[in-house]
Amino acid sequence: MTGAGAGRSRLVVLAGPTAVGKGTVAASVRAHHPEVWISVSATTRPARPGEVDGVHYRFVDDAEFDRMVAEGELLEWAVVHRAARYGTPRQPVEEALAAGRPALLEIDLQGARQVRASMPDALFVFLKPPSWEELVRRLTGRGTETAADQARRLETASEELAAEEEFDVTIVNHEVHAAAEELVALMTPVRGHESP
Q1: Coil, helix or strand for 59?
Q2: What's the confidence (pLDDT) of residue 4?
Q3: CB burial of residue 193 (10 Å; 0-12, 13-18, 19+)
C-alpha cells in the first residue's frame, strides 16, 4: 500500500487498566510495524529505568506541562494514579493523520474519554488482561512501585476494567505480539487489499 490518495487516516486509541501491558503492546507495534505512527505522551513523572526521553515519554516539569495546557497544545491530559500528569501533544497527532499514516495513541482511560469528546470518529480499543489474577501478577511483578503505589494502582485498575463497555473493540492481552498484531489489523482497512 503506497498511501497515495489515502487522505486523512483514522486515529486508533488504545486504553485499558493499569499494568495491562499497553506500553508493551505499543512497543511491539513500534518494533514490527514502522509504518504505524505512535504518539509520545508528555508526563511529569520521573523516567523509570531504561526509559528514554522522546521515545517512551516526553519528560517535562510541572511548569512546562502547565504551559502546554494553557496554550492548548494537548489533545488530552489527566492526573494519573493521583500522582503525575500525562498528556498527548496535539500537533504531532494532527500531522500524522493529515499525512495518512496509521496513527496510535496509547493512553489511560481518562485520556481516552477526552479524545472521544474531541475526536469521536477515532476507533477506541480496550486492552483487557486475561484475568484479574494475571493483572495483579503483572503489576506486582514489575518491581517499579512501592506496596502503597501497587495498592493504589490495583484500586484504579478495578475501576478501569468496568469501562470496557465504553470502547468499540476489546483485545485480550494473552500474549503481547498477538495483541499487537490484532491491533495493527484494526488499523488496516480491508478495502486496501482489494485495490491493485
Answers
A1: strand
A2: 39
A3: exposed
Q: Could you give all domains of the chain from N- to C-terminal order, each with its CATH number?
A: 11-188 (3.40.50.300)
The residues, any chain, with a CB within 8 Å of residue 77's CB and separated by 6 or more, are: 42, 65, 68, 69, 85, 86, 87, 88, 111, 114
Give residue 86's Cα distance to chain centre.
Answer: 11
Nearest to 112 by CA among 77, 147, 74: 77
* DSSP codes of every residue in 62-73: HHHHHHHHHTT-
Q: Confidence band (pLDDT; 50, 70, 90) for 185? A: very high
- Calculate what percentage of the chain has a pLDDT beyond 90: 60
Name the pLDDT band for 189 (thresholds 50, 70, 90).
low
Is the entire prediction scored with pTM above 0.90?
Answer: no
Question: What grid cell was written down for 36?
Answer: 504505524
Rg (the chain; Cα; Å):
17
Pairwise CA distance, residues 124 & 115, whole Å: 9
Query: Considering only CA atoms, which of 174, 177, 137 is closest in space to residue 157?
Result: 137
In angstroms, the Cα distances linking 184 to 32, 74, 102, 135, 166 are 10, 25, 9, 23, 20
The answer to whether the CB of 1 falls within 8 A of the CB of 100 is no
